[in-house]
Amino acid sequence: MALTKIDDRGLKTPIDLLDNEKIRLGTGNDLELYHDTENYIKSATASVNLILESAHDVYIKHGAENMLKCTGDGAVELYNDNVKRFETHSEGTYHYGHSTF
What we know:
- By secondary structure, the chain is mainly beta.
- The chain is about 0% helix and about 40% strand.
- It contains no helices and eight strands.
- It has strands at about 20-25, 30-35, 40-45, 60, 65-70, 75-80, 85-90, 90-95.
- A hairpin with a 2-residue loop joins β4 and β5.
- The N and C termini lie far apart (about 50 Å).
């Protein structure tokens, strides 16, 4: 599917792709977004980082459950079953619950 025209108001209809069809961005197709049996955001060039950037917080979630939260001030929180288990802060880390090593 070739996208030929977008006006100043954006797309009139959604872009619908079938499984395994990719949206590729960059001169060398460096970034790919696609679905097969899983969903992918892929940095397709080995020497290029994948950066998620936000003006606020960044979350990785499973449905409504938090898995990872990166806050705008630099802290990182890790969750297990939507319960915070580990976090970083300016002076070190906090750990919640039992440790097993």
